[in-house]
Amino acid sequence: MATLAVGIDVGSSSVKAVALKRSGAGYSLKSVGHADIRRTEYFPDESPQAIAEAPLRALEKITQDSNFGRKPCSFAVSGPRVAPRLFKFPSLPKTEVEAAIRFEAEQIIPFDLAQAALDYVLFDEVMEEGKPQMEGLVVAVHKEEVDKRFVLLKSAGFDPVVLDIDALAIANAFVETEGVGEKETVALINIGAKFTNLSICHGPRRVFVRDIASGGDQLSRAISEIYGMDLPMAEKRKREAAYTPLDELEGGGEQGFESQAETMPGGGMGGAGETAGGEGGEEEYVLLDGDETAMMRKDEAKPGKGAKAGDTMTGDEEGGFDQSAQTQNQMGAAQRISANRAVLADALGDLVSEIQDTFKYYINRRIVPKVDKVKLCGGTAKFPDIDDFFAGQLGVPTQLWNPFARIDVAGVAKRFPPNFLDELGPLMAVACGLAMREISG
Predict the structure, then answer these.
(1) β-sheet bridge partners, residue 159
(2) What pLDDT is stored for residue 440 in this prediction?
(3) Is 320 exposed, middle or buried (0-12, 13-18, 19+ CB in 10 A)?
(4) What is the pLDDT of residues 386-413, one digit of tens each?
(5) By C-alpha distance, which of 232, 225, 281 is closest to 256?
(6) Residue-range domain boundaries for the chain
(7) Which fold has domain 183-399?
(8) For residue 256, pLDDT beyond 50
(9) pTM for the whole structure
(10) Antiparallel, parallel or unpaired: β 398-400 and 373-377
(11) What is the pLDDT of residue 77?
(12) Which of 96, 262, 388, 419 stands 20 to 30 A from 65 (CA)?
């Protein structure tokens, strides 16, 4: 067993690295690294050569940490040249399984297997009509993708020894840290810049995976279009949205949000600056979907203490100002979220549809009974209110997932500012799963 296991996640917008050790029944974090990859879309003034070398330069920054440089590591690939497929056939002797899976893969993999790296995992046998059936997942990866990633890591000073795919690495990290009940189905959604990895874990030993060509770049473009700013600034604003809400942006908001009102579930919303500070100094708010708090006009207001039903309540009456302040606080929270919801609906509508279709496919084929909960990770998963957006669209409880929450980080926490690892954690799911693969492999 390796004393130190390293996982390297090379995404399209950043490199993430995790070094783990086994710690009792769990894991302890020994080091973590993160470096952005400069891309043409967001750095248009960079030379073509600098853009081409950007992934290598990001990896070289990671190797400055002695826990990563020249160490054996696990790495992963994802995207259109990665083909995961389910298979099922009658139970066979172990000596015949590999040949049967390869034959099955030739029928269902969309490119020549002579040009692919092939691997598979078997699930528990199931009974159908009284006969045992073998089920599993076979994955083919085009060798060009593997070779390209291998050469890149070698050039940066890594020793790549274990190959995986992003979606399986995420599932591995979740099963190892959180666990999945025997009859539970958990969907993991890792939202990267260009691709989203979807992993559906049904029990601890069955997983179904898919890559979707949609992600955080769509969110940046939506911010750019709605607020009338260039793409580099929109990307910056997306990353800062947790600290400076979108509805505080100047310019472009009102017109953009009016055009997005129809895309929001349950109706429209007040755009940035729509009536704030207008005549009378009053602001206009719209509650979120499913929010049962009623916004009442003055002539519909509930009577305060000492008032009779049907009376008109004004601020001069006892209890009136307390109730008014409470209602304003509720409405203020709704207004703040509404801007985020508009951008999410515009940017991630296609992604949500693809995920919904995937859920329906597995449920209709009785592969899973239902999806019990959704966990979000990846850089875009930190965008404010995205968990509520997905929960409303998918009809499934949704939460942000931080794999560091179940890993002992005490040994490295003092090296970073307060809350830094909590902020970074959701980005590190793939890297964590890769490191755990090496430890348990």
Answers:
(1) 72
(2) 66
(3) middle
(4) 999 999 999 999 999 999 999 999 999 9
(5) 225
(6) 183-399
(7) Nucleotidyltransferase; domain 5 (3.30.420)
(8) no
(9) 0.80
(10) parallel
(11) 96
(12) 419
